[in-house]
Target: Ras-related protein Rab7
Amino acid sequence: MDNNSSSPGTFRRRTLLKVIVLGDSGVGKTSLMNQYVYKKFSHQYKATIGADFVTRELQIDDKLVTLQIWDTAGQERFQSLGAAFYRGADCCVLVYDVNVLKSFESLSNWHLEFLKQANPANPETFPFILLGNKVDVDGGHSCAVTEKRAREWCDLKGSLPYFETSAKEDINIDEAFLCVAQAALESGGQPDM
Model:
Protein backbone atom coordinates (compact mmCIF):
# COMPACT_ATOMS: atom_id res chain seq x y z
CA MET A 1 0.00 0.00 0.00
CA ASP A 2 1.45 3.37 -0.96
CA ASN A 3 1.40 6.46 1.22
CA ASN A 4 -0.06 8.69 -1.47
CA SER A 5 -2.73 10.65 0.36
CA SER A 6 -4.37 12.05 -2.77
CA SER A 7 -6.81 9.34 -3.68
CA PRO A 8 -8.82 9.83 -6.87
CA GLY A 9 -11.83 10.83 -4.79
CA THR A 10 -10.12 13.87 -3.30
CA PHE A 11 -9.14 15.46 -6.62
CA ARG A 12 -10.27 19.06 -6.73
CA ARG A 13 -10.64 21.03 -9.90
CA ARG A 14 -8.85 24.30 -10.24
CA THR A 15 -10.75 27.23 -11.54
CA LEU A 16 -8.96 29.79 -13.67
CA LEU A 17 -10.39 33.30 -13.42
CA LYS A 18 -9.36 36.00 -15.86
CA VAL A 19 -9.45 39.47 -14.36
CA ILE A 20 -8.80 42.63 -16.38
CA VAL A 21 -7.57 45.77 -14.57
CA LEU A 22 -8.37 49.06 -16.32
CA GLY A 23 -7.86 52.74 -15.57
CA ASP A 24 -5.86 55.79 -16.52
CA SER A 25 -2.09 55.80 -16.61
CA GLY A 26 -0.51 56.37 -13.18
CA VAL A 27 -3.48 55.36 -10.99
CA GLY A 28 -1.53 52.42 -9.52
CA LYS A 29 -2.81 49.36 -11.39
CA THR A 30 0.59 47.62 -11.50
CA SER A 31 1.35 48.61 -7.89
CA LEU A 32 -1.97 47.15 -6.69
CA MET A 33 -1.24 43.86 -8.45
CA ASN A 34 2.35 43.70 -7.19
CA GLN A 35 1.21 44.39 -3.64
CA TYR A 36 -1.47 41.70 -3.90
CA VAL A 37 0.67 39.00 -5.51
CA TYR A 38 4.21 39.74 -4.26
CA LYS A 39 3.57 41.94 -1.18
CA LYS A 40 5.93 44.51 -2.68
CA PHE A 41 5.67 48.20 -3.47
CA SER A 42 8.10 50.11 -5.67
CA HIS A 43 8.48 53.88 -5.60
CA GLN A 44 9.76 53.80 -9.17
CA TYR A 45 7.10 54.53 -11.75
CA LYS A 46 7.42 52.55 -14.94
CA ALA A 47 4.58 52.73 -17.43
CA THR A 48 3.16 49.39 -18.50
CA ILE A 49 3.56 48.81 -22.23
CA GLY A 50 0.67 46.90 -23.75
CA ALA A 51 -0.42 44.27 -21.26
CA ASP A 52 1.05 41.86 -18.74
CA PHE A 53 -0.39 39.47 -16.18
CA VAL A 54 0.33 37.99 -12.76
CA THR A 55 -1.30 35.01 -11.08
CA ARG A 56 -2.19 34.15 -7.53
CA GLU A 57 -3.84 31.03 -6.16
CA LEU A 58 -6.36 31.20 -3.38
CA GLN A 59 -8.94 28.97 -1.84
CA ILE A 60 -12.57 30.05 -1.75
CA ASP A 61 -14.76 27.65 0.17
CA ASP A 62 -13.70 24.25 -1.23
CA LYS A 63 -12.47 25.59 -4.57
CA LEU A 64 -8.88 26.15 -5.59
CA VAL A 65 -8.92 29.33 -7.64
CA THR A 66 -6.18 30.78 -9.83
CA LEU A 67 -6.62 34.48 -10.43
CA GLN A 68 -4.99 35.55 -13.68
CA ILE A 69 -4.85 39.33 -13.28
CA TRP A 70 -4.21 41.29 -16.46
CA ASP A 71 -2.55 44.66 -16.16
CA THR A 72 -3.11 47.11 -18.98
CA ALA A 73 -1.40 50.25 -20.11
CA GLY A 74 -3.48 53.27 -19.18
CA GLN A 75 -2.25 55.40 -22.08
CA GLU A 76 -4.74 56.22 -24.80
CA ARG A 77 -2.62 54.63 -27.51
CA PHE A 78 -2.99 51.24 -25.84
CA GLN A 79 -6.63 51.66 -24.87
CA SER A 80 -7.93 49.53 -27.73
CA LEU A 81 -5.93 46.37 -27.17
CA GLY A 82 -8.63 44.54 -29.06
CA ALA A 83 -11.32 42.04 -28.31
CA ALA A 84 -8.91 39.10 -28.00
CA PHE A 85 -7.34 40.65 -24.91
CA TYR A 86 -10.67 41.21 -23.16
CA ARG A 87 -12.36 38.01 -24.32
CA GLY A 88 -13.01 35.41 -21.65
CA ALA A 89 -12.72 37.85 -18.77
CA ASP A 90 -14.60 36.84 -15.61
CA CYS A 91 -14.35 40.21 -13.86
CA CYS A 92 -13.16 43.74 -14.59
CA VAL A 93 -11.47 45.93 -12.00
CA LEU A 94 -11.70 49.67 -12.65
CA VAL A 95 -9.07 51.77 -10.87
CA TYR A 96 -8.81 55.51 -10.33
CA ASP A 97 -6.63 57.74 -8.18
CA VAL A 98 -8.74 59.37 -5.41
CA ASN A 99 -6.51 62.44 -5.72
CA VAL A 100 -6.97 62.92 -9.48
CA LEU A 101 -10.44 63.92 -10.58
CA LYS A 102 -9.70 63.24 -14.27
CA SER A 103 -8.93 59.56 -13.52
CA PHE A 104 -12.38 59.26 -11.88
CA GLU A 105 -14.12 61.07 -14.73
CA SER A 106 -12.68 58.66 -17.31
CA LEU A 107 -14.08 55.57 -15.53
CA SER A 108 -17.24 55.57 -17.65
CA ASN A 109 -15.08 55.43 -20.79
CA TRP A 110 -13.11 52.46 -19.44
CA HIS A 111 -16.37 50.76 -18.40
CA LEU A 112 -17.84 51.27 -21.88
CA GLU A 113 -14.64 50.24 -23.65
CA PHE A 114 -14.57 46.98 -21.69
CA LEU A 115 -18.20 46.16 -22.51
CA LYS A 116 -17.63 46.99 -26.17
CA GLN A 117 -14.45 44.90 -26.48
CA ALA A 118 -15.29 41.97 -24.18
CA ASN A 119 -18.90 41.78 -25.35
CA PRO A 120 -20.05 39.72 -22.31
CA ALA A 121 -23.22 37.63 -22.66
CA ASN A 122 -24.94 39.62 -19.88
CA PRO A 123 -23.50 43.15 -19.81
CA GLU A 124 -25.97 44.25 -17.08
CA THR A 125 -24.80 41.57 -14.66
CA PHE A 126 -21.11 41.28 -15.63
CA PRO A 127 -19.01 41.85 -12.47
CA PHE A 128 -17.10 45.12 -12.22
CA ILE A 129 -15.32 46.26 -9.06
CA LEU A 130 -14.20 49.83 -8.43
CA LEU A 131 -10.98 50.65 -6.59
CA GLY A 132 -10.18 54.19 -5.47
CA ASN A 133 -6.42 53.93 -5.02
CA LYS A 134 -3.79 56.10 -3.27
CA VAL A 135 -5.86 56.94 -0.16
CA ASP A 136 -2.53 57.21 1.73
CA VAL A 137 -1.33 60.28 -0.22
CA ASP A 138 -0.99 63.43 1.90
CA GLY A 139 -2.78 61.73 4.79
CA GLY A 140 -5.97 61.78 2.72
CA HIS A 141 -6.02 65.60 2.58
CA SER A 142 -5.56 65.85 -1.19
CA CYS A 143 -8.52 63.60 -1.98
CA ALA A 144 -10.39 64.96 -5.02
CA VAL A 145 -13.15 62.33 -5.14
CA THR A 146 -15.21 61.63 -2.03
CA GLU A 147 -16.22 58.11 -1.10
CA LYS A 148 -19.84 59.27 -1.42
CA ARG A 149 -19.31 60.38 -5.02
CA ALA A 150 -17.58 57.09 -5.89
CA ARG A 151 -20.40 55.06 -4.33
CA GLU A 152 -22.98 57.10 -6.27
CA TRP A 153 -21.13 56.22 -9.50
CA CYS A 154 -21.13 52.54 -8.45
CA ASP A 155 -24.89 52.69 -7.80
CA LEU A 156 -25.48 54.14 -11.27
CA LYS A 157 -23.58 51.20 -12.78
CA GLY A 158 -25.63 48.59 -10.91
CA SER A 159 -24.35 48.63 -7.32
CA LEU A 160 -20.72 47.78 -8.00
CA PRO A 161 -18.55 46.84 -5.02
CA TYR A 162 -16.20 49.69 -4.07
CA PHE A 163 -12.94 49.71 -2.11
CA GLU A 164 -10.64 52.55 -1.19
CA THR A 165 -7.12 51.17 -1.41
CA SER A 166 -3.47 52.01 -1.03
CA ALA A 167 -0.96 49.82 -2.85
CA LYS A 168 1.83 51.59 -0.94
CA GLU A 169 0.39 51.00 2.54
CA ASP A 170 -1.35 47.69 1.65
CA ILE A 171 -4.80 49.03 2.59
CA ASN A 172 -7.81 46.92 1.51
CA ILE A 173 -5.83 45.06 -1.18
CA ASP A 174 -6.56 41.49 -0.03
CA GLU A 175 -10.20 42.36 0.71
CA ALA A 176 -10.65 43.94 -2.73
CA PHE A 177 -9.13 41.01 -4.63
CA LEU A 178 -11.07 38.46 -2.56
CA CYS A 179 -14.21 40.31 -3.65
CA VAL A 180 -12.90 40.21 -7.24
CA ALA A 181 -12.33 36.44 -7.01
CA GLN A 182 -15.78 35.80 -5.54
CA ALA A 183 -17.48 37.98 -8.17
CA ALA A 184 -15.53 36.27 -10.96
CA LEU A 185 -16.44 32.83 -9.57
CA GLU A 186 -20.11 33.73 -9.48
CA SER A 187 -19.94 34.92 -13.07
CA GLY A 188 -18.69 31.47 -14.01
CA GLY A 189 -14.95 30.95 -14.13
CA GLN A 190 -13.71 28.23 -16.45
CA PRO A 191 -12.75 24.96 -14.73
CA ASP A 192 -9.17 24.18 -15.62
CA MET A 193 -8.47 20.47 -15.88
